[in-house]
Every structure is written in structure tokens, then in C-alpha cells.
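Recap quiz, item 2
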Amino acid sequence: MLIDVLGGFIQELRTAGIPVSMVETIDAMEALRHTDVGDRQAFKAALGATLVKNVRHYEAFDVAFEVYFALSRTSPAASGAESNSPSGDGATHGGGGEADLEQLLQALARALAADDTGALQMLSRQAVSRLAGMEPGRPVGGTYYLYRTLRQLNVEELLDQLVAQALAGAGEPLSEFDGRLIREEMQQRVDRLRDELEAEIRRRLVADRGAEAVAKTLRKPLIEDTELMHATRADLVQLEHVIQPLTRKLAARLARRRRLRRDGRLDFRRTMRRSLATGGVPIEPQFRAPKPSKPEVFLLCDISGSMATFARFALQFVYAMSNEFSNLRAFAFIDALDDVTDFFDRDTEFAGVLQRISSEAEVVWLDGHSDYGRSLEQFWTRYGQLLTARSTVIITGDARSNYRDPQAEVLEQVRDVAKAVYWLNPEPRSYWNTGDSVMGKYAVSCDEVFEVRNLRQLEKFVESIAQQHHGRVRLRKVG
Amino acid sequence: MHQTPLSTPGEVSDALKSVDYLSDPTISQTVFLAERLGKPVLVEGPAGVGKTELAKALAKVHNRRLIRLQCYEGLDEAKALYEWNYKKQLLRIQADQGADWQDIENNIFGESFLLARPLLEAITATEPVVLLIDEVDRVEVETEALLLEVLSDFQVSIPELGTIQAASEPIVILTSNNTRELSEALKRRCLFLHIGYPTIDREKEIILARVEGITDHLADQVARVVRSVRGHQLRKPPSVSETLDWARTLIELGISEVDAAAVRDTLNVLLKYQTDIETVRASYASPDLDDR
């Protein structure tokens, strides 16, 4: 029985995009043999440790776990309590009268004030059965039911009540600072109530429609698979956290200190010194380490309306990069191009940077529709002389130039001077060169064009320039 | 101390607590399973939440020696696994001039000419050890492969000598700050444990266990303030290690009651970036938070 559920669970993890290998499945089974399956937390920890090897996947794992093992939490004590509420009004259960709701609210406030998890779970059950008004058979994820329950419980008021109680209970008058700490703590408890309610609703949905169907409703793409063009604000916040390591990697790749020492020249002095240990025979020749090249990065971002979400992400990427590179210059453009490097100063938060760019950067010339040709031309005439053989130019945008002259020859000139030109396009490859997209015209002047619709592809870009970078350097040396 | 394996996750928690490491159910369960299944644990999480500390605590609990391999970019076989002591080999050859070459060859590729580096040392130790492979995300992907044989089979292959099997199974802990994605092959061989910031209650216990002479009241306040600080948009939120530093600082300064002013004055212990300090300072500086 457990094996069957586990099979379905692992299938769900895979469908959600988490790579679970055969070995890991066997490990999970093995781990469960040593685990008290009745202990929900231990059970979850055992599955988590064996099946999920990436923090980014925990959220998807949590959701799937809640759905597939929702029912296992129903211990006899808890389900018995449902018809026998703590205030002793079992008889009126289901009536849902005013007085009844009042009692439930009071019981909830007491449970929250005492931080009593057991009571909180029990009361959540009651709250959902009375207030959510769930209708069987509807293929929904439960957000509506949650909203409905929360509204009737009036959580804002509940929070105020809790804070007031805690402040009054403290005896001596508290400073505002302590008051603030208490408020934050109570807020957290109320959030936990929300989680409990959500879990309860999910449990009922699963009982109604089966785990597989509910999991399907709740399934969200993993953060690395989220389409950047259509990311929500919450997605972007999450992306902010994962983008940091990626830029560090990119920095390391571009500056790659080649550890293959043999690429350097013979270090005669060190070779002789080493040979003393072997009686004057130079067994191990020593080489000078090649000097690490200081990379210069020029980033050009299209921040026009059609690209709004992606532009925010791109700027986030720039922001993260600006902390890694000293030699980074960032440019934003719509139908005019402006140097925005100075906005990314270390001491400003990203939100502040964004605001300054949108209010101060001069990126609109005529009508605020993208004009790649004009922007590139401006870049070349104003900043072209800054480019050297060590410069890497990265352009992000959909190459939709509103049927204006693409001036692809300008990009050709840029490439002749720079070390490499990369283009990151957030549109699906099949859309390129359709309508006003002139990707193809620019592609010939780029070292490579990457489709970057999600974080996974951005990661691939970072990986691949490591190799190319390496190859290119070698070529130059030979030539 | 325990020589025998611990029989329940609860015992793991208790044993860790006896050496002042405050575990949580997930940590205990994972450590317990690792010992049961004979698998390494890959511990991930922000800096300063006690990843390395966990390995040290385990060594203490089991009364085992801790062997540590600190990873860094450029770590190679000779530094991680073993190296032939070629100077000694040369001496041996010179000392035996005229001897039969076959004899010498057999001789100089013996174990006495081998310099054991941490991985080999952990494998060949006669009594069981705890092997800590610290910050494994710092080595390159290619170097990761060096670890695989040790991690899955607890053995090391040396071409001239053959395979050396572990005399006793070591407990292996790998830590990573997640600066890059580790290879699938490595992850598959490990149990995964993410340690995040602790809950208020656990953090308070950690403070009480680790900071000498702190009152229950102050520990409680410190834990609550730190949680509040973590709620801000920060580049580097304070970790457990910073919390402990801060608690010690407060004691040094003779502060027994934390108020907004005390927090503002000592923030530089808790936060490492000037921007973060300013963010939090501004947030706690609004006039209504002071009750003068």
C-alpha cells in the first residue's frame, strides 16, 4: 500500500521536473525501513534526504508531499475531535451561526496565543468545514476556499487582538521596539494558521478527487523552468536568490585563471631550485602561471515595454554581476541608448536601481518602441572606442525592431573589435525572424545567439561560454 | 561516549545535544539514516549555520578522530588522495646501488613510500573516523570525480598497489555553500540535508548552550531580534555564528536588556555589509520606536 503511494509520489516529483534516479528510489525505500513511518516529520525527512538533492526543488517537493501524504496525518484523536470542539458545543456543529463563529474565533485566538499546534490543527479543521463551503467535484486548487475562510475569520482583526493581548499580558509597559517584535511574532503565528488552513483544504480536495488530480492542479514549473517573459513578481523575487551563484560562476568563467600551468613559459629559476631535491636533475620542470586576464563586460539590455518582465530580470542579472565584476558597463536602450553603469552602485538596493533607471536614464527618443539599429549605432559611436580585444559584449533582447533599419553592419564592427559578442533572446527559437524580429540579421555578427527563456537556459549559456572562451584563447595564441 | 551506532533519531538528537550541538528533527533523522545506510551526507545551507560544526559534533559523539579535507580551486589528486614520496624513493634507489632492479621496483612502490592525504588517511585508519570534506563546491567538476570512489565504495585505487579497502566505514560529511551545482553523480551517492536558519526556539537554545553566562531573558530577546533582522531585505542575513558573536558582544558590553538603541549600536557585529547595516538601522530608527 505504501509502495503504491510512494510510486505515485515519485512519479509526481518527476513530472514536476525533479530528477529522481532509480538509485535514489531504492535509497528511499531502504531509508523508510529504518524510519518510524507514523512520525510524519521523520517520514518527510527520510524522503527529502534521499529523493531531493537541490534546495530549489524543496517547494515542489513540499507541495507533492502534502498532496500525497495528506491523509496520513489523520490520527484517531484528531478526527474524533472534529465533532467535539474544545468549547464543548459539539451539538451545534455545522450550524454556523453568529455565536458559533464567535466561539471558534475565540478558541483560535487562545490556541494562537498559547502557540498550541495541536489545537490549531483541530480548529483549522473546524474552520474549513464551517466556512470554506467546499463543493465536491470542482477541479480547483483551493485558493478560493482559502480566501473565503480567511475572510470570514477576519485574520487582520485576529492579529490585532493577539498583539493587544500579548502586550497587555506582559505586565510592565513595553517599549515600541518590543511591541514590534511581538507583532512580527504574532504575524508569523497567523501565517501558520493560514498554512494549516491551506493544508486542510488540500487534504479535503485530495479526499474528494484523488492525489493525482490535485497534484496536477497545483503543479507549478520549477523556478529554473519558469518562463522569464511571463514571470510573476513572486517568481522574480525567488529568482533573485538563485541568480547570485550563477553570476559568480559567470565571473569565474570569464576570468578563468587557467590552471593548466603548461600553457605558461618555463620558469627557469623555480625549476633549478626544485632540482636541488633530486640531486640537480630537473625532474619536474616548473612553469610560469599565465596572467589571468581581466575581463571587461559590456551589457546591453532592451528595457522596452514588450520586454518589461524580462528586462527586470536582465537588470537583476546585471545588478548581481556588477557585484562580481569591476569592469562591467551596463547600457539600457529602447530607441535610444544610455549608460546606466553608475546606477548600479554597490550601496543601492535593486529596487532603488530600478527606479532610478526608469526615471533618469534617457532611453526614449521618439516613441518608446524598440529600435535596435539606432541603439546599436549610438553604442558604437559613443562607446565604441572603449572596446578592446578583452571585451565581451552581451546583448539581451527579442530583436524586434518594429520594422526599422536593423543596421546589422554596426554589430559587425563591434564584433571585429571585441573578443566576443553574445546575444540572449528570451523568445522561443521558433518565433525568431517572424514578424518584426530581425534576429537572423544580427545572428551572423554574433559569436553565438542563445535562447534564454528560463534560468536553466541561462545556466547553459554560462556553461558554454566557459568552453568557447577557452578555445578562443588558444586560437589567438597560435595565431 | 558512543562507540555503538545510535538506535533512534531521538538518540542522535540527545547525543548531539550532549556535545552542545542543538539538532532539529530533520538533521537527526538524516544523520541517523546516513549511519544506517552507510551513506555520506551532503550538507548545504548559508554560511555560518553549523554545517562544519555538525561534523565536529559527530566526531565528538562517537569519540572518533576527525579528518578534514578543505577543498579549494585547484585541489588535485596529490593533495586529496595520495602522493608517492619520490624523494624517499630516490634515496632508496641511491642507497641500494647495484642491487637487482626488480627488487628495488617492488620495494619503492610499497606503502611505506606512500604519502597519505586526507581521503586515503580516512580509508586506511584502523579505528573508524569522521571524514569532513569541507566546501566541496569549490573544487572543479573534474576534481569531483576523485571523490566518487571513496564516497560510494569507501575504497581508493592506486595503480601500483591495487585497491585499498576501508578497514572500517567512516562517517562522511560533505559541506557546500551552493556556489555551483554539484554533479549528479556526486549527489546521487549522498543523502541531502539542507540546514537553514533555525526557528526562534532552537536558536534560543543554541545561544543558551554556546554563550557562557547569558540569561534566559537575554537569549530570548537576542533570538527574537535576530529573527526580526532576518525579515529585512538583506544581502547577507545574519547566521547562527553571527548571532552568537552578537550575544557575546552584548554580554561584554554589559547590556542585559536589548532595546532599539542597543541594536543600532551593535549592528556591525550582526551584519557584514554597510548597506545591510544602514537598511536595518533605518528600519529601527523611526522615532516611534524609541521611547525617550
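The radius of gyration of chain A is 30 Å.
The longest helix of chain A spans residues 176-209.
End of item.
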